[in-house]
Design a protein that fits this description.
231 residues, mainly beta, Jelly Rolls, eight-stranded antiparallel beta sheet
């Protein structure tokens, strides 16, 4: 009986590990501190992910230490230094939301190292993308470098440099394209000719790695049509 129980537990562990991976269009992702699955949305298959609050608890009184974390679907079998990352994304806010000020946080992590302890990230706050308040609009786009340069530190040390506006909204498909070359990154929104945002000196510790489809607190994120091109 002990032998049978041990085999059963091993099978359960193997199933749990397998459940942490999802595949869409021949691309396999490992779920890191998120829940995720392939679902049908408006007649097409897309990847749906949400932050796992059991994996990383959230504390509204400690935003700096409980947001901007490795909460993404990590693309397997990729090591990208310089290149183009493009994906279509749609953001919704959970109802009820665990965070009253949720903005639909959604974006792309890149140059993720093997153990998820360092990466770069550019994400959106679609809820304020078309706000009537220009100060809110100016915080639609956010860059951060994990683990040392989260949004709160960047606002204190370089307010406005790592944020900007973008014409996006909740419940809309948004095409985000990030071009990365050395210490430089540019972001384009919805196939516009000119970039919406630049980071002229990336602050992260990594120079290459994989990418992650990223969400944060209170967000339901949908992703499709991921493309990666190396320079």
């Amino acid at each position: 009986m002990k032998k049978i129980s041990a085999i059963f537990l091993l099978n359960l562990c193997a199933f749990a590990l397998q459940a942490q991976k999802v595949t869409l269009n021949n691309q396999t992702f490992e779920l890191k501190n998120v829940t995720g699955s392939v679902v049908e949305l408006n007649g097409e298959k897309v990847l749906k992910i949400e932050r796992d609050l059991k994996a990383i608890p959230f504390d509204v009184n400690r935003l700096g230490t409980t947001v901007d974390e490795p909460t993404y679907a990590r693309l397997l079998n990729l090591d990208l230094e310089d290149g183009i990352i493009e994906v279509k994304m749609l953001s919704q806010i959970q109802n009820p939301s665990p965070f009253a000020s949720a903005q639909g946080f959604i974006g792309i992590a890149f140059r993720i190292n093997e153990n998820d302890t360092a990466f770069e990230n550019i994400y959106l706050r679609p809820k304020v993308g078309r706000s009537d308040n220009q100060l809110f609009r100016n915080k639609t786009v956010q860059y951060y470098a994990y683990p040392d340069y989260k949004f709160d530190r960047l606002r204190k040390e370089a307010n406005g440099k790592y944020e900007t506006t973008a014409p996006v909204d909740l419940n809309d498909w948004i095409t985000m394209r990030i071009e990365v070359k050395g210490p430089w990154a540019e972001m384009y929104i919805n196939d516009v000719r000119y970039s919406t945002f630049i980071v002229d000196k990336l602050l992260g510790k990594t120079t290459s790695g994989t990418i992650g489809l990223w969400v944060d607190i209170g967000t339901i994120g949908y992703f499709k049509d991921l493309k990666v091109i190396r320079f």
